[in-house]
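Sequence in, structure out. First:
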Amino acid sequence: MLQLIGLRKPVLFYIMAVLLVLTACGNANENTSASEDTEPKEGGELVYGLATAPDSLDPHTSGMAVSTRVNNSIYEKLVYQTENNEIKPWLATSWEVSDDQKSFTFKLRDDVTFHDGSKFNAEVVKYNFDRIVNPETKAASAYALIENYESSEVIDEYTITIHFSEPAATFLSNLSQPKLAIVSKEAAEKYGLSLATNPVGSGPFKFVNLDENNEIVLERFDDYNRKAPYADHEGKAYLNKLTYKIIPEEATRIGSVQSNQLNAVETVPPQDLKSIKANGNLQIYETQTAGMPYGLFVNPENEPWNELEARLALKETIDVDNIVNTLYLGTYKRAWSVITPTILGYDKTLENTAKIDIEKANERLESLGWTKNSEGIREKNGNQLVLRLIDSNVNREKRHDIATIIQQQLKEIGVKLEFTTSADYYNITKNGKDYDVIGNSRVAGDPDVLRLFFHSDNLPENGGSSLARLHDSEIDQWLESGELETDAAKRADLYKKVQQKLIGQGYFIPIYVFPYTVATSNEVKGLTFDSQGYPQFNDVFINK
């Protein structure tokens, strides 16, 4: 049972109200039901195909969801979020919150050992928070979750108080996020930034080897002596070994599980979902991710996209229905806002409001002085109207294909799209002059995620994640108020204002809500997902 020492009722209500529930569908294929009647077996190896390579195996410096899919097996957090809208103890056993919501005191487990043999205690927790806010760590995404962090006070070996300079209404929710997982103090001091390739946590699997862009090998941590969150059994994992293979090519990835070279693969292409479900040779597991849908951030610092009329012209020309229906065959849902439908404050009134109007889009660009040349491309002062879109070099979820379709659609209004891919495309965002549009998404359980991407303080050159490069005092104010507001209804209203302005002013063009899909052989049993849609492997076993 959840222990909340001295937790005020309004705070508890707030936590219950804002947390997201994601239901994992483990039995999308009827064959998966067999796992419920099969006795778990210890031993064996699961080989799991990833669509992209993780950027970091250090949870504090990681910026990608695929990294979390690996890191969640290595690391643990102080608390976790259940499917029933609760925050529950993990490495922390209980906590109390001060009346001003600036101080959080945690009682910690006294029986936790890291993979390197070092002990988990209050000093380790203090080190982790101090490490996150240290600029040398470059923990931009993790830091944004605790940006008003002031200090940690070690009360005794297994009690710690964490202090904030401002009321931290979202702290417990943020504490359940993977980026605030606890790393070994000894390992972090030993490896420094190289912890990204030498991860040490306290989770059910420990790191063995990394072959960059090829594979990551973990093995069971035999000293794991407790029941992991989301697991059905007590103690260590069933699998001896968990190997992640990096396989960006969809056909190769799916072919590998179909030919039994791999036990499981993620991100099943839409065209394969129906056939796999129909033939019964593989199992399909599905869950909905939440946070920010995949969409296009339009950079308002560059001309003419600093003009509202130009951004609206893009919005009226990019046919999202056509994109989603053509590429995803009904397996992905169209996104309408900058957060997904199950997030607190989602503005349902935005649905079905985006309309394609090519005539109006052309009129807008004409009004800005951009006229079409003999080739149908708009020009002004001798310059062509070019929209520069950048993305990763990996065609994740057919995002390159989205760019190709948009390229054709924009020809109708005389805009030339230049599409660039780069393995280092995140660094390009640090110079806003080098791109006009970038696509991205983010897994999260709270609308406060919008602050990371749209608050003017969070520009990439300052170490932040604001791909939008937005400087809007009104949006800043709403986001700041939303971070501090404890009344769920008032918070929702604030975030609805943010959504209305971001979508209405063309700063963000939503494309799709991502469903996380996994195909496995029929021998794989016990795969589940956490409340944010990440796969959990502690209960997984191979039934041969």
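Second:
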Amino acid sequence: MIRRELPSGRVATAVAVTALTLASLVAGSPAATAATAQAQEPVKWQPCRTYSDDDLRTLITSDEQLRKFRALLSRMECGTVSVPLDYGKPRERQITIAITRVKAADRKRRLGSLALNPGGPGGAGYLFPLQIASMNQVNAELNDRYDLIGFDPRGVGYSTKADCPAMGGQPPEPGPLTKAAAERAYDSGVARNKACGTSDPAFLGRLTTLNSARDLDRVRIALGERELSFLGVSYGTWLGAVYRSTFPGSVGRMFLDSVSPVTFRLDDFEDGHAAGAERNFGRMASWIAERDGTYGLGSTPEKVRTAVLALRRTYDAAPKHYSDWQMVADGSTVAMLAIQSAPDWPQVAQAFKEMREESDTAPPALRKLLEQGAVRPPSPNAPERLNATTGQAVFCNEDPSRLGFSEAWATYQRRLERNPVTGRAIPFTAQCAGWPLPVQAAKVRRTSGSLVLSGHRYEAVSLYEWTKQMHAAIGGTVFTVDDDVHGSVLRVPDCAAKLVSYFDTGRVDRGCDGTPVPEK
């Protein structure tokens, strides 16, 4: 399906690293942890919410998964944990973290509690254990010996939160972005950031990965656990790395899939996405070239690349307004197709083929890709999936770049030049320009204990190089997935089996094949 990995709503991770403050070091010290354990109240358990099938449809993919989801829902417990808004002032304002628990099925062989985070920042994890365990039978085995713990990080879902007005700007005009249009978009973004950041600075300024890690340790204590195991995907890998670095004695087994970079600037992060996508397009071009008889885009990767570049230029010169669809296709649409991962290559190649033909109606393959990638509008009672305000605040509280317009424009132009096929897929942005709150960050470090870092060899969202960098910084075992699909371990039974085995035994081999490349 089409995956729009944009800064304001990516599933992948964005992180920031500078120096720890003295308060951070104190909060993570053994003495502070012991004092917290004495003061922390237990979980306040309460009746769980009820959901209609429509409420859950944005979280699940089939009627069979819905049946399994509901069976798990009947076993789920719901509660809240009280934590300080500001860990530098622990006796002042308190906020709540919403958690869920599905107790281990095999109580006699129970190994402990396993917290799960789906990514973000701003991603809701309240029902994530149920999503995982209902996805396939292998994943369900995680619940045999572990209590599965879901949680909404501060600022998200059923936890204490604040909402700014809509953070997204107006969609750009079709065709190549002009400097004047970019400057207008930049100024509008600065105004939105200032308005958001000043709306509730006391709360928004405390939305950081480090504070979420501290909250997670409070959850551990409230559950009465000596250690907490952790499974994180995408941004959840950064949360896991910060948690492990800040509270090394609190962590049991930890598996991080699609690993974040160790150091972060949002512009560097987006450059990495574009470069990874351009590189992976070479694999797509080779696949399409081997099927030239079907798609007619060229018999060599070079010819396919030339054909796609020509298509991008054609659509930029004359964006297509379809008579049967509101969408307007331009060069960025072609680039968006070019960044798709291997499972979608057949539909992408067919869309390229159809887009070369003259037609007033939308190419069927393009329409199918976009429609299957669309998120179903939630019902009013549906659980939140992503909180845009928290996503923005965490990004911007931790991003030191905050580029001025001239530098942001030069960065964008350089990205287009270096990545001619895929560069247009990442729009011009200076996402944190004008954010009025100070830069904060956490530093990861090497500690002892059980850790697996799962990197996908060809992925463009979380680059494989970032897994190696994180390994050098914090240690652990590198688990290599030979695919290009972000966070696919839980969705591929053979890979998931190795993940489950790791949490059961503490042992893991060096990788799995991941999502296969289509034959046709």
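Remark: Residues 23-164+208-264+441-508 form a domain with the Rossmann fold fold (CATH 3.40.50.1820).
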